Amino acid sequence: MEAADLASHLKRIANDGYTIVENAFSPAEGDALLADLDRLERELGIQFAENTFEGRRTKRVYNLLAHGPRFEAIPVHAAVLPVVEGVLDSGCLVSSLSSIAIHPGESAQPIHADDQLLPLDKPHVATVCNSMWALTDFTEQNGATRIIPGSHLRDHSPAYGSEHASIPAEMPRGSVLVWHGSLWHGGGANKSNAVRVGIAMNYCAGWIRQQENQQLGLSLDTVRRFSPRLRELVGFGIYRGLIGHIDKHSPIELLGDSSDRKVFDF
Predict the structure, then answer these.
(1) Beta-carbon neighbour count of residue 124 at 10 Å?
(2) In terms of Cα–Cα distance, which of 21, 16, 9, 5 is closest to 134?
(3) pTM above 0.90, yes or no
């Protein structure tokens, strides 16, 4: 990503709480991801969720990094990761990677902030930075993510189930919505006759617990095939020379690799 483009995206997130990276991935990449998700839904027997947050006409596949190499390119994508690192820092982690398929007839998800479970006064330094990959067009009619620009600067989070004026983050297929974890938002209602499919690629700061337990949810054999950067992103590294060590050694050594980085090597 060009420096000017990166600066523009980061400025918009600072001011509005979100940005949209267009043309981040190709139609062919989108088709391949859709095919993999369709396969996983069938193989894993994925059913509609049964609660107000996940939805009752929505299907989700969690822990996607455990389900094939095609998903490994998502966390380290060159058009998105630099934006996330600009909001958090280079020590950020994969918090969760899942698909969200909103089917016709789904109602709007309650407006929420992704960091509102954290016991921190607001506004605060970014602890979470999340993204939504549009594998289909995202329109107001089919349930595009609804957002409240600037809400990441508020001194509180929304009460669950409360009503708020919002706008749809409409974007063409191949785009990626990136937002500050304090931004008020929620999935939209699908009033169309087609499924709206996205991949939620969520990140957290290196000092925050990940939403999905990457170290237990991924086998060591799976992580061994990851690129060095992806290994770091799922937690096989040390944050700022200290956080995440095992007996003063980097967890990367569990994969059979050596590490020159030791605890307290700031």
Answers:
(1) 12
(2) 21
(3) yes
